[in-house]
């Protein structure tokens, strides 16, 4: 998916300036304005507004004017224009905030769940691992005794944590048998070498 960051303009109001003369042709009630709000977007999803500007044009002589070139009376008329709410321009920011909240909540829930499961290992649990060399892998619990845990390590490593699911297949656990004490397992979790526990509930 291509992500495009940029700005766009939205026309929020059009109208005519009453009892004002064109600075060039001096025709009265011929000045029309268009007010635009500019907003930043991420792949066409608006994030937040970044300003506004006004286009002023005379319908008689077709001359266009900058806001700063107009008289103080005209500028005050434009300042007094009531604009529609632009809350929709914050749509992307709302979505991003909700995503961040959801991600943080999931992370906290995952850590809470892992902290409970690590104290009660059972056969079939799969522990996702993070090694000191930056690679990731997994190990499966094959046997649990009063003070020991017997595991089989995955034959493959992953570069990123979400890739562990791709290598977590029964055929990838073979002869790499490792025995840990339950204290060692707790220590690995405390040192962030065990980052997640997957417990498959048998139906």
Short description:
Keywords: Membrane, Transmembrane, Transmembrane helix. With 203 residues, this protein is α+β, with helices and mostly antiparallel strands.
> What is the average of the pLDDT values?
89
Give the number of domains: 2
Are there runs of 5+ residues with pLDDT below 50, and where? none
**Biggest sheet descriptor:** 5 strands, antiparallel
Span between termini: 38 Å
Count the beta strands: 9
Strand content: 35-45%
- The ordered string of helix (H) and strand (E) elements is EEEEHHEEEHEHE
Structural class: alpha+beta
What is the helix tally? 4
Dominant shape: rod-shaped
- Rg, Å, rounded: 32 Å
**What does the oligomeric state look like here?**
single chain
* Sheet with the most strands: spatial strand order: 8-7-6-5-9
Outline the structure in words:
The chain has 203 residues and is an alpha+beta fold. The chain has two domains: 5-95, no CATH class; 108-198, SH3 type barrels. It is 24% helix and 37% strand. The chain is built from four helices and nine strands; from the N terminus they run ββββααβββαβαβ. It has helices spanning 72-79, 91-117, 164-167, 182-190, and strands at residues 5-16, 31-42, 45-58, 64-65, 126-130, 136-144, 148-154, 173-181, 194-198. The strands form two sheets. The chain has a five-stranded antiparallel beta sheet with strand order 8-7-6-5-9. The protein has a four-stranded antiparallel beta sheet with strand order 1-2-3-4. β6 and β7 form a beta hairpin. It starts with a strand and ends in a 5-residue tail after the last strand. The model has no long low-confidence stretch (mean pLDDT 89).
């Amino acid at each position: 998916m291509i992500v495009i960051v940029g700005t766009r303009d939205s026309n929020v109001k059009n109208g005519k300036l009453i009892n004002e003369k064109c600075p060039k042709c001096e025709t009265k009630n011929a000045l029309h304005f268009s007010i635009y709000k500019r907003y930043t977007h991420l792949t066409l999803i608006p994030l937040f507004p970044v300003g506004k500007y006004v286009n002023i044009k005379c319908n008689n002589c077709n001359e266009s004017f900058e806001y700063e070139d107009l008289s103080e009376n005209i500028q005050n008329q434009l300042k007094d224009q009531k604009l529609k709410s632009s809350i929709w321009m914050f749509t992307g920011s709302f979505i991003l905030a909700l995503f961040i909240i959801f991600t943080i909540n999931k992370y906290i829930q995952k850590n809470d769940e892992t902290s409970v499961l690590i104290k009660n290992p059972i056969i079939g649990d799969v522990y996702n691992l993070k090694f000191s060399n930056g690679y990731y892998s997994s190990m499966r619990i094959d046997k649990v005794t009063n003070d020991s845990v017997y595991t089989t390590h995955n034959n493959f490593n992953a570069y990123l944590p979400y890739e562990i699911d791709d290598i977590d297949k029964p055929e990838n656990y073979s002869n790499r048998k490792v025995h840990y004490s339950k204290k060692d397992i707790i220590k690995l979790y405390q040192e962030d070498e065990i980052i997640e526990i997957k417990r498959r509930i048998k139906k």
